[in-house]
């Protein structure tokens, strides 16, 4: 079968690899219908996170079950399913608590020895704990199928940030970052009843999506200018809830600066850069809470799925470029130079 591999910075290839097969009784094999490129994939692409030459890459996919192991009971051959970006057994102590990303038997797609999501098929360990079955008729609706793909990562990650930040009806929310996760954070804030949603971003095409997703205000400034602009929009107080969806020192400093005293930051931007940007003294003095981390997307899918199915939430606009599998390297280049927001891969 064909799959995407990474060999060095800026060296992404689509090449023949061993077929995905059932190895253990808990496994399933999923034929991929939709996959995509994540902003976090770019850190490997740019050489900012290490990968072995030839390692698989990609962690977001949905598709059709082709084969199951003897112990799999929740899905069957022919089922349409979506996979969160981490597999999990669904039974360990962490999974029972809802923290599936800390599963004792879990792992990330594309880790050494595992299949990546950007390929023709994927071997799924612990299929019962990992895969979520979707209505078969969704496969006939291209826009819906694309929206459902967002459940594999960005929609659940934006929701995790909103929950961590304490978004609730009537609150003011600020979102730092205009990538797919930040935009899904806007969706999540609207879904949870925020009254004012301030999107921080400089790219008009992206902030236009933010407005369509529910942002009431847009701040294009950065750094202290952004802090001043948000405070002006909030009567000098700042936002009750701040979603940090970038992961740099500057973005975290901005997040702290725009948070209202007694407010909270939900952080889901994968950390990268020279430091955390946290001033613990300031956070202590102003009673600012910090919650977030790797989103346990599998836990959130059952909650979010009905709203995607009925159109209450439609994250599909975050996918602004579609490529076939063989053109995935061009998709990486487009996201790297920011000519694409998020690339959809159709097998």
What gap, in angstroms, lies between the N and C termini? Answer: 12 Å
The number of helical elements comes to 12
Helix content: 25-40%
- Using the alpha-carbon principal axes, give the shape: globular
Total number of β-strand segments? 18
Question: What fraction strand?
Answer: 25-35%
Global mean pLDDT? 96
Largest sheet: 7 strands, mixed
Low-pLDDT runs of 5+ residues are none
* CATH homology group of the largest domain: Medium-chain alcohol dehydrogenases, catalytic domain
Structural class: alpha/beta
How would you name the oligomeric state of the polypeptide chains in this document? single chain
CATH class of the largest domain: Alpha Beta
Radius of gyration, rounded? 20 Å
| CATH fold category name of the largest domain | Quinone Oxidoreductase, Chain A, domain 1
Give the H and E element order. EEEHEEEEHEEHEHHEHEHEHEHEHEHEHE
The CATH architecture term of the largest domain is Alpha-Beta Complex
- When the domains are counted, the total is 2
Structure commentary:
The chain has 347 residues and is of the alpha/beta class. It folds into two domains: 2-153 and 296-346, Quinone Oxidoreductase, Chain A, domain 1 (Alpha-Beta Complex); 158-292, NAD(P)-binding Rossmann-like Domain (Rossmann fold). Helices cover 30% and strands 25% of the residues. It contains twelve helices and 18 strands. Strand 14 (239-244), helix 9 and strand 15 form a beta-alpha-beta unit. Helix 5 crosses helix 6 and helix 6 packs parallel to helix 7 (204-213). The longest helix is centred in the C-terminal third of the chain and has 13 residues, at 297-309. The chain starts with a strand and ends with a strand. The mean pLDDT is 96.
């Amino acid at each position: 079968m064909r799959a995407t591999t990474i060999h060095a910075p800026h060296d992404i290839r689509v090449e023949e690899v061993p077929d995905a097969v059932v190895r253990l009784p808990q496994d399933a094999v999923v034929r991929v219908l939709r996959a995509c490129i994540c902003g976090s994939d770019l850190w490997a692409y740019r050489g900012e996170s290490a990968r072995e030459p030839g390692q698989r890459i990609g962690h977001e996919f949905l598709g059709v079950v082709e084969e199951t192991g003897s112990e799999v009971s929740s899905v069957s051959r022919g089922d349409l399913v979506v996979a969160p970006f981490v597999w999990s057994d669904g039974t360990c102590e962490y999974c029972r608590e809802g923290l599936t990303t800390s599963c004792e038997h879990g792992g990330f797609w594309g880790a050494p020895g595992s299949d990546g999501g950007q390929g023709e098929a994927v071997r799924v360990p612990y299929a019962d704990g990992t895969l979520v079955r979707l209505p078969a008729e969704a496969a006939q609706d291209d826009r819906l199928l694309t929206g459902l793909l967002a459940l594999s990562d960005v929609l659940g990650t934006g929701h995790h940030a909103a929950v961590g930040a304490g978004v609730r009806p009537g609150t003011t929310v600020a979102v730092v970052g205009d990538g797919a996760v930040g935009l899904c954070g806007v969706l999540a804030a609207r879904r949870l009843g925020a009254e004012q949603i301030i999107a921080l971003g400089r790219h008009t095409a992206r902030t236009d999506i933010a407005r369509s997703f529910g942002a009431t205000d847009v701040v294009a400034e950065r750094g202290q200018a952004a802090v001043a602009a948000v405070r002006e929009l909030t009567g000098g107080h700042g936002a009750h809830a701040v979603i940090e969806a970038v992961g740099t020192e500057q973005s975290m400093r901005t997040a702290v600066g725009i948070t209202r005293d007694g407010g909270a930051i939900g952080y889901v931007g994968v950390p990268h850069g020279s430091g955390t940007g946290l001033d613990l003294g300031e956070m202590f003095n102003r009673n600012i809470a910090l919650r977030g981390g790797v989103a346990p997307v599998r836990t959130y899918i059952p909650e979010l799925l009905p709203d995607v199915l009925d159109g209450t939430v439609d994250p599909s606009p975050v996918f602004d470029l579609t490529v076939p599998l063989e053109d995935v390297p061009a998709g990486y280049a487009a996201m790297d130079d920011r000519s694409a927001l998020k690339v959809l891969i159709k097998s």
